[in-house]
Amino acid sequence: MTPLADSHAVADLPDQGVFVPVTPLVQVRLGPDEPSLWCKAEYMHPSGSTKDRIAAHILCKAWREGVLRPGGWVAEASSGSTSIAMAMVCARLGLRFAAFMPEGVSQERAWMIRGHGGQVHLTPKADGIVGSLQACRVWAREHAAFEPRQFENPENAQAHRLGTLREALAQVPGGRFDAYVSGVGTGGTLVGMRLGLQDAGVRARAFAARPVAGSGAACCDCFAAVEQCSFSARIPGVLDGMSHLYRPADFEALEVIEVSDEEAIETTRRLIRAGHPVGPSSGLNVAAALRAARSMPAGSQVLTVLCDRMERYFSTELFTRWQPAAG
Q1: Structural domain total, the chain
Q2: Cα(6)–Cα(270) distance, rounded to whole angstroms?
Q3: 124, 167, 228, 306: least surrounded by Cβ within 10 Å?
């Protein structure tokens, strides 16, 4: 990454590339009888998730437009990776950051935000992420803070349209994909991939990955108890009804793949054992992408995203209920 020479030079501030390197596009095959997938290794961003893209894109745009100034406040409601990414970018720009999160999120997330100098405001667990959103709105008005509003800001999808998808097309053999797969939280990744493929004139099947509750016992630190609107109690960040960006009718023929949370978590562990240090949303994406690939002709190129790193889940059931084999 090129260092930011002068974070106070509004007119000269570069775009998100100052903060966000090009991530690898890696081929992932979890077994000899499994299809091969193309996965964007977004966990390799500086703060460890694909949310670095939207944080850098949204905040740099606001900075160039004069909405943000040195020492100004940014406030966002997020139960995880977006707040971590915002805290990192704010630290680089000399901005102050306040995250609003429901009680019960994994402690690693709060530590990472505070490590970048951000504030963490915990809202009642019973109110979920909706309560955090409401508290954030009130606090932002009182402190004249800029709100990225990830669930409704179209620049969220633009970051993936101009970054994630454009990079992937430049990296994949033949410059094409036959299908793309993503879970839906803010909806920015799936919408951005659709728009980027349209820009390039590439037609590909679209798949939305949706986690559903399996038969296993719910974990004691349920994400749904925190986020309230999660599809599943065990897959963080994949939410139902929160996005103002994602409209299924905008897709030519969107297909929804339901994946049990047990399968998503086990796929996450398989990815970790295969050398990809990722979290549960990546397992969801890969499990759904494998299903999509099996429904397509041999040799089809299927794209999905490895969203974030495993370290922010050490205190969750992904690890507390897993005993990897030693040696």
Answers
A1: 2
A2: 43
A3: 124
